[in-house]
Amino acid sequence: RGLLMTDREEIMESDSHDNAQSAKKNSKTSLLDSGEDFEVLDEEDIDDDEPPPLEDVGEGKVQPTNPENTNPDPTGQVDEWLDVLGNGQLKKKVLKEGEGRDSRPQKGQNVKIRLKTSLVDGTVVEEKPDLAFTLGDGDVIQALDLTVQLMAMGEEALIQTDAKYAYGARGSLEPAVPANAELSLEVKLLEATDAPDLELLPPAEKIALASQKRERGNAHYQRGDYAFAVNSYSIALQITESSSKVDITPEEEEGLLDVKVKCLNNMAASQLKLDHYDAALKSCVSALQHQPDNIKALFRMGKVLALQGEYTEAIQTLRKALKLEPSNKTIHAELSKLVKKHSEQRGAEQAMYKKMLGNPSDNSSTQKPRAKSSWGLSWKWLFGATAVAIGGVALSVVIAARN
Ligand SMILES: *[C@@H]1O[C@H](CO)[C@@H](O)[C@H](O)[C@H]1NC(C)=O
């Protein structure tokens, strides 16, 4: 749930679990309601000779001065664009009427659609005879999540969307959509069924469902859509946390927990990208409650704490991570960076050199300007060696990948 929100509200939603409730309340004024407004317009008596409101003019197909043209098409076709968001960037036109308003699918239902996606020049980029997704979960591009809930069962509609509600500034490889591409979608709503009752869902299916939502989150993350990623991870988490009325084996329990911790870690990463440090910290803490030795959670928590200026705690956390994985260069680098920052914060430069060089016998009181220049040399050497080591790791990864 929760994709029908403005950007601002998405951000609020992703802020923290606690905020989710208030965000939902605030979304009362958002897209769903504007959708409702337009539904009313949609059904307005089009014999009315008032010109339609500006947002609804669309392609200017309506000619209110000519009553014959404003009569509904006797074949049941409605020749009018609906401006879904009121900004002209997402428009829907009914090509063939469906079963009526009551047959519209609800958010959270599983729907099946026939989809044909084209660029504005007519190039078809994707054709799906029966695409299934959960409505409003962010499983598909926003244009579909927003418009399919305005469709009646069996309805065929044409949707025109700005890149913003489709594949955005990055475009996509699969389907092949260039950057900033407006799209034209031909949709037929085929089916809508209630989502399965999570309490009765066999654990294996629960794991599969949660994993699917998590992968959706990963896809959003990779595209840089961090708020959408958080949304998908939250859905996955809810699935893993849902109570169950069916028997569950210890292995399945373990499997669910595993997905949950992965989601929490990925969620923390997304929240970090959104600069929601408190929320990210909560996610890490939650992950560590389940798996105290989870290196990813420790590593990310260290990062968050550092960003919050909690250097002492951050260093402690990263040391714990390093203890579990002593050869990890990323953790080493992050820790050195933190130790350095921490020292700077305390204004103790001598301590910084000592820790960076990892030379406990070094007596800072004897440090002279000359010592500083030798430090400079060692410093270069240290980073040169690190670069060589990382290069080696990269090379072995390449070799491993080829075999
Ligand atoms: C080091 O740890 C980080 C954080 O857990 C992880 O993302 C990274 O893959 C690790 N690197 C190696 C080489 O194991």
Description:
One of its GO terms (biological process) is negative regulation of apoptotic process. This is peptidylprolyl isomerase. InterPro entries: FKBP4/5/8-like (IPR050754), PPIase_dom_sf (IPR046357), PPIase_FKBP_dom (IPR001179), TPR-like_helical_dom_sf (IPR011990), TPR_rpt (IPR019734). Keywords: Isomerase, Membrane, Repeat, Rotamase, TPR repeat, Transmembrane, Transmembrane helix. The N terminus is likely disordered. This protein has a 6-stranded antiparallel β-sheet, covered by helices on one side. The longest helix is centred in the C-terminal third of the chain and has 34 residues. 51% of the residues lie in helices and 12% in strands. The chain has 3 domains: 187 residues, Roll (Chitinase A, domain 3); 96 residues, Alpha Horseshoe (Serine Threonine Protein Phosphatase 5, Tetratricopeptide repeat); 49 residues. The chain has 403 residues and is α+β, with helices and mostly antiparallel strands. The site of 2-acetamido-2-deoxy-beta-D-glucopyranose has 6 residues, from helix 10 and helix 12.
**Alpha-carbon distance between the termini?**
43 Å
| Mean pLDDT across all amino acids | 78
Percent helix = 40-55%
Bulk shape: elongated
TPR repeats: 295-328
Biased composition (Low complexity): 64-75
Keywords: Isomerase, Membrane, Repeat, Rotamase, TPR repeat, Transmembrane, Transmembrane helix
Biased composition (Acidic residues): 34-57
